[in-house]
Design goal:
Shape: globular
Radius of gyration: 14 Å
Number of strands: 7
CATH superfamily: Nucleoside Triphosphate Pyrophosphohydrolase
CATH class: Alpha Beta
Mean pLDDT: 93
Helix content: 10-25%
Amino acid sequence: MMPKTTVGAIISTQNGNDASKILLTRRNIEPFKNHWCLPGGNIELYESAREAIIREVKEETGLDFEGRFFAYFDEIIPEYGLHAVVLIFTGKASGIPQAQPEEVAEIAWFSLEEARSLTLAFNHNDILDRYAFSQSLAG
């Protein structure tokens, strides 16, 4: 099995000194059905990473996403047969979130601390930990 390349979005509501909220989706499909996670998915053949994250966010949440590259993560979870390189984008989105029931059971905003306290799908807890650390450095 060859590793896949996937994308994920950290969509925030941060405005100035206000407390930031992070958008999570609750999965309606396996693996990790009913777990909360960051919106995202697989990059399709001949699709750029930027095109993939815009498409995935729209497909799962109905939102238009303008993100910038944040970091990559190795996602190696043998018990689920998963091996992927995950490209994470951060930014804001516009529109009204609407769960797309084929993949997403629910959408909700969480404080970064709340999101990090959940048992998230894939390695999304590690991703949010690194994001929180980067935010603490940014001041």
